[in-house]
Amino acid sequence: MSSGKSGIGKSGQGKTRVKTARRRTAQSTRWLQRQLDDPYVKAAKAQGFRSRAAFKLLELDEKFNLLRGVKRVVDLGAAPGGWIQVVRQKRPGAGLVGIDLLDIDPIEGATIFKMDFLDDAAPGKLIEALGGQPDLVLSDMAANTTGHRQTDHLRTMGLVEVAVDFAHRNLIPGGSFVAKVLAGGADAALVAELKRNFAAVKHVKPPASRKGSSEWYVVAQGFKGE
After folding, report:
1. Name one Pfam family in it (predicted).
2. 109 annotated as a binding-site residue
């Protein structure tokens, strides 16, 4: 007879199987099952990264050499800190600041702000802490989902537009910008704006991004400056 308690077992194929819990919803059970079976989650734990998202930046860097030679980096929507860890690993001497509404445990060599990037004071605080203009702006910001696809897209793209504006105002010539977008990529007007200000603009879905996820990334390199 089942005790009704939550638990984890092994399936006949050797995969970790989540047992049904009395208070766990079907959605949360599926999420936990996916986490337990996800090789990127396991690799993140093994390598000391705070999240599987670290591998997204590693893969983007492998494809676009984003971190090569960078001296100052801004990470928008930085929680829980996986991308900051990657930058510290690949470019230990680079200046690095991150910001998020959520708590982020301290990371040696990085300045982290717990505040809303939409706060008027946020951009100035980031640049002041960085000690100069960045040559790479990363944005993994995304709005909390509502379940309504169009609404979620518009809210997230609003954050992307704010991140683009920050990059345009602060990047050094030749710098790069990376931002999370949703299925379909950045809007045509935004892509056109990026192409006016950067030498190369591409959309990419790194292998570490779940196949069922709607997220993509826009990568803009070679900022033209003023």
Report:
1. FtsJ
2. no
User: Does 165 appear as a known binding residue?
Assistant: no
Residues 25 and 91 in one domain: no
Q: Are residues 17 and 125 in the same domain?
A: no
Q: Is the pLDDT of residue 144 over 80?
A: no
CA distance linking residue 181 with residue 52, whole number of Å: 18
Tell me: the pLDDT tens digits for 165-196? 999 999 999 999 999 987 666 778 889 999 99
Burial grade of 147 (CB within 10 A; 0-12, 13-18, 19 or more): exposed
Specify the pTM.
0.80
Asked whether residue 131 is marked as a ligand-binding residue, the answer is: no
Closest CA to 93 of 112, 126, 70: 70
Task: Give the range of the structural domain holding residue 161, as residue numbers without chain letter.
Answer: 54-223
Residue 213 sits in the same domain as residue 126? yes
Measured between alpha carbons, how far is 85 from 210 in angstroms, rounded to an integer?
Answer: 21
180 is catalytic: yes
Instruction: State residue 115's pLDDT score.
Output: 96
At 14, the pLDDT band (50, 70, 90 cuts) reads very low
Same domain for 85 and 59?
yes
User: Residue 116 annotated as binding?
Assistant: yes
Catalytic position from the list 63, 71, 180, 205: 180
For residues 28 and 59, membership in a common domain is answered with no
Task: Name the CA radius of gyration of the chain, rounded.
Answer: 19
CA-based torsion, 119, 106, 58, 17: positive or negative: negative
Q: E strands, the chain, where?
A: 7-10, 16-19, 72-76, 95-100, 111-114, 136-139, 176-182, 198-204, 215-223
